[in-house]
Each structure stands twice: as C-alpha cells, then as structure tokens.
Amino acid sequence: MITGGFAAHHFGEWWRVKGPVVVPCTDDVGVFGSPVSNEWALIQEHFHLEREEILDLARKGIDVIFDGDEQKARLRGIMW
C-alpha cells in the first residue's frame, strides 16, 4: 500500500512526535492478514525500537482508549 517499504511508512515520522498519541493497532486483520501482535513485531523490527520504547508506546495507548478511569487504572497496573 506504500512505496519504499517499511522505512517509508508514516509511523516512522509520527511515533516520536509530541502531541498526538500514536498507538499501533489494526482493525483490518481480515483484509491485510496481519494481527495486531504482528504489527507490533514489524514496527519493532523495521524501526529498530528497543523493548522499553515498545512498552512506552503501548502505555501511551491507555490514556486514549474508549473506556473509563477504572479500566485505565487496571491497565496501568498491568503495564507497569
């Protein structure tokens, strides 16, 4: 869907930007044949992220989920 391979993907431009929260996810597993766990693995591999950088990305996602404070607190307890 993009030219230039993974290096040209817009994730590379946005994941370090302050302001917008960038969280890898997919809702098209049936179309693209890639579950979200594979998306994270590809990001780590092709953008050379360390384990802690991957965890930081995942933790940022907690604040923007469509759920209440109780669920967010539960997830924070799991992720830290």
**Proportion in β-strands:** under 5%
How confident overall, as mean pLDDT?
82
Number of strands: 0
Estimated helix fraction:
40-55%
Number of domains: 1
Number of helices: 5
Question: N-to-C SSE series?
Answer: HHHHH
State the major sheet. Answer: none
Span between termini:
35 Å
Topology (elements, then pairings):
Elements: H1 11-14, H2 29-32, H3 36-46, H4 51-62, H5 69-79
Helix pairs in contact: 4-5
Notes on the protein architecture:
The chain is mostly helical and 80 residues long. It has one domain. Helices cover 52% and strands 0% of the residues. It contains 5 helices and no strands. Helix 4 packs antiparallel against helix 5. The relative contact order is 0.13.
What features would you highlight for this structure?
0% strand; 80 residues; mainly alpha; 5 helices
Short structural summary:
This protein has 80 residues and is mainly alpha-helical. It contains 5 helices and no strands.
